[in-house]
What does this fold into?
Amino acid sequence: MQKIELKGSKRDVIGKKAAKAIRAEDKVPAVLYGGKEVAHFAIDEKQVNKLIYTPNVYLVSLDLDGEKVDAVMQDVQFHPVSDKVLHADFLQISNDKPVVIEIPVTLEGFAEGVKQGGRLSLEQRKLKVKALPANLPDTLNIKIDHLTLGTSVQVGELSFENLELLNAKNSVVAAVKLTRAARAAQQAGGEEEA
It folds into this structure.
């Protein structure tokens, strides 16, 4: 999995006034959980945006005033009107403890049903997985060559080495749906046979 380095500075004063002052400096108040103690820090808004506004998922190497920690982003809060980042939560990780994170899905191949006039639909762009940090992939690659009209790939049909999928087994990841044109062609073909 790809890594991104972020630099933050620890903050001693917490609360609404302190958070507002941090945001006025184009920084984001953040919290790091999962270590020996909870760490409050401020991080540059541009750095956080690089982490948020991307389809990729990253392991984060946080540098908090010289103290390096590996983490993953757990939660982000946005302003309801301006969509500016208000707050970020990070979870400290270690190589011997599994982590739960969402990984992007990549479809591989060309579905047979699309050749027959169907439309490929990606129902879930990310899947929730549980694995050790060393075993986390950049993407979950799913082969779709075998999909015909009206068929789908469900989470229960998928398996990946060294990680566990946490989504419901019957939830659909990708499907080939019948388009109106394909349905009309199918009905016209059925009437000719009769």
About this structure: The CA atoms of residues 13 and 19 lie 9 Å apart.
